[in-house]
Amino acid sequence: MTGLKASEEDINQLVEQLPDGLVPSCILSLLKSFPLAGVCFSLDEEDDESEFGADLKWFTVRQMCEEALGGYPGKVVLKLGYLPVASCLAGSGDPYFLKVLNDNDDPPLVRIPHELASDDGEYPESEIEVVCRSLSQFFNRAEID
Question: Is the pLDDT of residue 20 over 90?
Answer without folding.
Answer: no
